[in-house]
Structure formats: C-alpha cells, structure tokens
C-alpha cells in the first residue's frame, strides 16, 4: 500500500517522465521491418547520406511518428516504405515480404490532397474505389460511408475548389481510409493547415485510429504533433539521417496537445534534438577542418569528408 502511494506520488511529481519510455517491442513478428536501411543521394564528395543504419520495426495497429529536423531523412524513409524509392542499403519488409515497389497494401498521403479538380467529393472517392475493382454500387456506398466518417456529408457533391484546405484534407483522408490499406503512410499531411484546423484533424485522426487501429507511419517535425498522435515517437537526427530514440508514449487518448505531461515530454524531446544538433555541428566543424588539412598542398589528398561515405 505504502509502496503504491509512493509510486503514485513520484508519478505526480514527474508528469511526463514515466509516460515517455523506451519502446519495448511486443511479441510476435512485426508488420513492417526496417533493417539496417541506408540511403545515399549523389556520388563523390557531394554525396548526401540521407539515412544510415536505420532499424525500426512496427507492429500491426501501431501509430508511429517519425520525428526529426528538416533533412534527417523522414521523407526518404517514408518513400522507401511506400516502395517509391529503393534504399541503397539494408532491407524493408512488410509481413515478411521484401518491399520491391508500391503496392495496394500501402497508401501515401501528402500535404497536397491531390484530388481531381473536375470530380466532386463523391466522384473522387468512387473513382479511386472503382480503380480498385469495386462495383459501382459498392463504391457508391463506401464513398458515402467514408465521407460521412470525416463529417462531410453535406459536401458530397461539392467540387474540391469549393472546399477549405482542411475539408480537402478530410476528403483525402476519407479516400485513403475507404481504400482500406493495411498501412497508412503520411508525410506531414497537416503542415499547411492553420492551427485550429490542424488540431481538428488531430482529433479526427485519433478518433478514426481508435476505431480502425490501422498501422500508421506519420512523418512530422512538430514535437507536439508527434506526441499527440503517436503510440510511438521515433526521434531522428540529421547528417547522417539516423534514429536517436524510439519512445513509447503512454498518454491516454484522445490527447490534448496542451496537456501538462505532453508539454513536459515535448520539452524533453526538444532538448534531445537540440543536443544532437549541437553535437552534429561540432562534428561537421571537425570534419571540415580535417578535410581542409588533408586537401591542402602536401596534405593526404582530397576525399569525401569522414562520415559521408556510402551507407552500410
Ligand atoms: N532527390 C534528392 N536528391 C539529392 N538529395 C536529396 C534528394 N531527396 C532528399 N535529399 C537529401 O536527403 C536528405 C534527407 O531528405 P528528406 O527529404 O528525407 O528529409 P526530411 O527529413 O523529410 O526533411 P523535411 O522535414 O525538410 O521534409 C536531405 O539532406 C536532402 O537534401
Ligand atoms: Mg520531408
């Protein structure tokens, strides 16, 4: 009893500390397995190591946020998961099968809702569903159901230009969910929305996720967005793009981004990111100094700076 009280009090004193813990993988094989993935763009001294030795496993029904500063390889990793980009090293498998290109089991969502401007909301969904082989009546029923799920019943017959940015995003979400992919891949989908619409989208996405438990990989550079949405936050750093921490968020849903514990957690993660940034800048200064010394006349010769070679 005393023990339980102590533990409760210590949790009260440190909100946000016990609720953000290193991730422990559940038993069983993962749905997505990213193993020692590396990716380099370009060749020679200009080569950019977008990803280096990235290991991430995602289990069925997890909501994972990839969080990190600009250029840390979040989109590169997401496109590799989608099969739009073949990493130069390592392997990615889904349900034990190596990813070799795009597939209907994965759907990628961007900031740009990419709706056909000449088709109504209903027709946009029906078009996508018919392309997946649904009959006209099945597509019609499914389109209605998913437009309703995102609260746009009154806009079934509206054209995209008659909708606000947030509404277009909801249509994109409805279309993606209607296709029922096993994995949803989202690349900063709400970044262009105003703060209010964005938090509405956060609530909607959480509500739908609680209902459907889709496997989601969501890219963001916004710490609070990651903590509001993710079961897990994979914190990445740049140059080379790599995983710093894989954390489990144990906050109840639906989450409020202004929640005290969440704000504390976000401070902790920001401090980690700032530390990684400072360490990276220091390392680059040292690399540049070494490079300048070795490429000076009589030096050891010019070559790519240390750490910018091909990923393993
Ligand atoms: N097609 C490309 N050609 C050359 N370099 C690229 C290409 N795409 C990305 N890069 C480089 O790879 C690194 C990772 O890029 P990526 O787009 O994955 O970052 P990101 O984390 O998504 O950044 P942001 O938050 O700005 O979207 C960056 O240094 C970027 O300049
Ligand atoms: Mg990106």
What does this 3D model show about the protein?
By secondary structure, this protein is α/β, with parallel strands linked by helices. It contains 8 helices and 11 strands. Helix content is 39%, strand content 21%. Helix 3 packs across helix 4, helix 3 (121-131) runs parallel beside helix 5 and helix 7 packs across helix 8.
Feature tags:
single chain; 312 residues; alpha/beta; seven-stranded mixed β-sheet; four-stranded antiparallel β-sheet; 8 helices; 11 strands; disordered C terminus; binds adenosine-5'-triphosphate; binds magnesium ion
The residue ranges in which pLDDT falls below 50 over 5 or more consecutive positions are 8-13, 301-312
Largest sheet properties: 7 strands, mixed
Percent of residues in helices:
25-40%
Structural class: alpha/beta
Tell me, briefly, the overall form: globular
Mean pLDDT across all amino acids: 88
């Amino acid at each position: 009893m005393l023990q339980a009280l102590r533990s409760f009090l210590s949790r009260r004193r440190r909100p946000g500390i016990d609720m953000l813990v290193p991730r422990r993988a559940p038993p069983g094989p993962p749905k997505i397995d990213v193993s020692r993935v590396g990716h380099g763009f370009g060749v020679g001294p200009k080569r950019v190591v977008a990803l280096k030795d990235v290991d991430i496993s995602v289990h069925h029904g997890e909501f994972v946020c990839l969080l990190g500063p600009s250029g840390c390889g979040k989109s590169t990793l997401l496109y590799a998961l989608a099969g739009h980009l073949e990493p130069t090293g390592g392997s990615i498998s889904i349900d034990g099968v190596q990813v070799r290109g795009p597939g209907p089991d994965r759907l990628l969502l961007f900031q740009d809702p990419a709706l056909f401007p000449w088709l109504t909301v209903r027709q946009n969904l029906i078009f996508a569903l018919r392309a997946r082989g649904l009959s006209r009546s099945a597509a019609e029923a499914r389109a209605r159901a998913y437009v309703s799920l995102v609260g746009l019943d009154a806009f079934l017959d509206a054209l995209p230009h008659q909708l606000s940015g947030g509404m277009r995003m909801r249509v994109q979400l409805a279309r993606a969910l209607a296709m029922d992919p096993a994995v949803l891949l989202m690349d900063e989908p709400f970044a262009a929305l105003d703060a209010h619409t964005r938090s509405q989208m956060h609530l909607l996405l959480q509500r739908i996720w609680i209902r459907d438990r889709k496997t989601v990989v969501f890219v963001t550079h916004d710490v609070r967005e990651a903590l509001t949405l993710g079961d897990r936050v994979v914190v990445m750093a740049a140059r080379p793009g790599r995983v710093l921490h894989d954390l489990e968020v144990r906050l109840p849903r639906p989450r409020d981004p202004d929640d005290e514990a969440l704000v504390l957690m976000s401070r902790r993660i920001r401090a980690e990111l700032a530390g990684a940034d400072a360490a990276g800048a220091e390392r680059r200064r040292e690399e540049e100094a070494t490079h300048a010394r070795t490429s000076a006349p009589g030096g050891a010769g010019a070559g790519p700076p240390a750490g910018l070679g091909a990923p393993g």
